[in-house]
Design goal:
It is a single chain. By secondary structure, the protein is of the alpha/beta class. It contains ten helices and seven strands. It has a seven-stranded parallel beta sheet, with helices on both faces. Helix 1 packs parallel to helix 2. The protein starts with 6 loop residues before the first strand and ends in a 27-residue tail after the last helix.
Length: 276
């Protein structure tokens, strides 16, 4: 099974992991609709929804750039309808948009707490919800949320409670839909890496150059997502998956090619903040 002709509706995706997943799908000739706010260039971050669409087309796919906010029900509804009108339906939803703030409880700005809840949890729930009528009509429908397994170890709950709540909310929404729509044949899974990924968020928020150098590239996430999204939906659902485990299941034994700095041994990679 490939993603040729399949239509993906993704939140965010102008850069980083989301764009890597979109480009991997585009290599098969997939259609990718991206709902993102990045209409104009950011002074410190590369990429807009428009440049992402250009890259997708160059990689062999079809693209639809939708400027909008996943916090807005009207924007979500419009994105689903525009995707249906352009490509005829929706086969896959990728809940990629996410806000990160690792501040402790007393330091976390209430507006930032609300933003994480609105984008991460509500956005995941509402985008999936809006697309479900079309997903139920698709041949092999998938929902994939980029969120971690539910690790209740106190060190993670206590390290950044506000962020943990928001990411776990994404996971709970997704696993709930897996159970609710199992009979309809809609798969819903989550995917998370075992190490940090070399993205702008890691560069700016998690440790700068040192952690970037000890990270894997977004390709490890993209290849794992591709493997998940090409599985039979009725058989592969309701799981909190780790990218490296998914790839091992596909026969990958050497992960050295995914190191952000070539030659970095696995033992030197920085562990993911939830799994380390």
């Amino acid at each position: 099974m490939t993603l040729h002709g399949k239509t993906i509706l993704m939140s965010g995706g102008s850069r980083g992991i989301g764009l890597a997943i979109a480009l991997r799908a585009a290599a098969d000739g997939a259609n990718v609709a991206m709902l993102a706010k990045t209409d104009t260039p950011h002074p410190k971050l590369a990429g807009t929804v428009h440049t992402a669409a250009e890259e997708i087309r160059a990689a062999g796919g079809n693209a639809l750039a939708i400027v909008g906010d996943v916090r807005s029900d009207e924007d979500i509804a419009a994105a689903v309808e525009q995707t249906r009108a352009e490509f005829g339906g929706v086969d896959i939803v990728v809940n990629n948009a996410s806000v990160i703030d690792l501040s402790g409880t007393l330091d976390l700005n209430p507006k930032k707490y609300d933003l994480m809840q609105d984008v991460n949890v509500r956005g995941t729930f509402m985008l999936s919800r809006a697309a479900l009528p079309l997903l139920k009509l698709a041949e092999n429908p998938h929902i994939l949320s980029l969120s971690p397994p539910l690790n209740l170890d106190p060190k993670w709950l206590g390290a950044h409670t506000g962020y943990t709540l928001a990411k776990y909310g994404m996971t709970m929404s997704t696993l709930g839909m897996a159970a609710e729509f199992a009979e309809a044949g809609v798969a819903a899974n989550t995917l998370w890496p075992a190490t940090t990924i070399a993205t702008a968020a890691v560069q700016n928020l998690l440790g700068g150059d040192k952690v970037m150098a000890a990270s894997r590239t977004p390709a490890v996430y993209a290849d794992a997502a591709y493997a998940v999204l090409t599985k039979p939906a009725r058989e592969y659902t309701g799981q909190s998956l780790i990218a490296e485990d998914v790839l091992r299941g596909e026969g990958v034994t050497d992960f050295s090619g995914y190191a952000a700095v070539p030659g970095t041994p696995d033992s030197a990679l920085y562990p993911d903040i939830f799994l380390g």
